[in-house]
User: Fold this.
Amino acid sequence: MRIRLGEASESFRQWAEERLGLKEVRDFLAHKKVPLHSATIWYYFGGITLFLFVIQVLTGILLLLYYRPTPAEAYESVQFIMTRVEFGWLVRSIHSWSANLMILSAFIHMFSVVFLHAYRRPREVTWLSGIALLGLSLAFGFSGYLLPWNEISYFATKVGTDMAASLPWIGEPLARFLRGGDDVGGATLTRFFGFHVAVLPGAMTLFLLVHLALVQKFGISVPPKVEEAAQQNRQPLAQMPFFPNFFLRELMAWYAALGVLGSLAALFPWELGVKADPFAPAPAGIRPEWYFLAPFYTLKLLPSHVWFIEGELLGLMAFTLLGVFWAMLPFWAVDRQGAVRTRLVTGAGVALLAYLGTFSALGYWR
Amino acid sequence: MAEGRRNILQWILGGGFAASILSFVYPAIRFMNPPAVPEAAVNEASVGSASGWKPNSGKIVRFGSRPVLLIRASESEWRAYSAICTHLNCTVQYQEAERQIWCACHNGFYDLNGRVVSGPPPRPLEEYTVRVRGDEVVVARRS
Assistant:
């Protein structure tokens, strides 16, 4: 019997080999290596971000079974999920916490790429696709925030879409497109729901495929200092096989992330707040999600006019310029001879981190 | 000669293809632009009885589909302003202790005349007129 089972499994293996070409996958995995050095730990955050995105997709599909995207029913349907559906509170809490952890993990991944100088040639497009993914993640956060149709999300959307409206020339049509009308209302909720569950997942999948394909093509970057040290010592770079060594470690990191996520979701269930009322004033202490706190506090500080420009427009222009400058990092990070300006980039990274950290903290507490 | 003819054909084919793509994309782009929904023009709205309001108080009332902040500054003095902050579209509220109008979103302050006192709002609030007919409070657009 054993022999027969063995024969059967061997013939199935051959059958699958012929049709799927698994040997090529095995060979690819056997040759794939991951650099091993003191900063290897930062390599895990890209994978953790991807893992949390998968959690988002799965819990999002579950929430879709009950959620209703109309002003009359949205809040009540989330309330129904949280109070009547079995484990509904947990699924919704995981979706909200995972969204926040995913953005945190994406930021950690981005800053690790900056400080390890992994953006440099030939990985410029990998960086750009990563910036697009971060932008899409923030768009996911902004559109998903409105869906429970509560007081805070309603005003956050009013502010966010009005910021778009203050852009010169394209501002008004853009804001009308986002809102589905002149003001935030039922049409906005329907549109944001469509963006959140159809447009953004499609775009995210596309950019994710490009990003992962480029990471596969160019391999994992080695920090310049590690490269130099290896050259000076005339020793080959320390590496570990991707499969199974790095893969198993990555799985452990995912499991740890799942543990953190589950604990946060269970111990601190995400609140629903008060239902949105277009005829109620904005509540005291209103503030956006933590990842929008820095621009929020900056806008709070700006006076109504700076010289002849309105403060909000100036702020928006500054954020846009900063965003473009940051997205173009791989192109100003090298000098004419092609050498990486490591000090300049590290300084810019520290400055941005300091701005985001300080203004987020001030926005939270003041 | 043949090459020139081929070039012309390529231009015609390429141009036709580009035009057909445009003709597919154009309706989709127009579709995304929300149509203007005609709103019943509201010039005046009755917002309740005056006896329910104590002096130095304010609350948001409906003016058609728009929120208006109605303030009873004193026994005989009424004020009404659009409740939409001129900074970033949040809804303002009346603060009785400070006798000021406040926007909680970015900490903008307006005085009882709707003028900006401090914070980021770039313009004063749009003013409405208030009339008290007997016990009925009526808010109207300024002509």
Remarks:
- Chain B has a mean pLDDT of 91.
- The CA atoms of residues 19 and 46 of chain B lie 55 Å apart.
- The helical segments of chain B are 2-32.
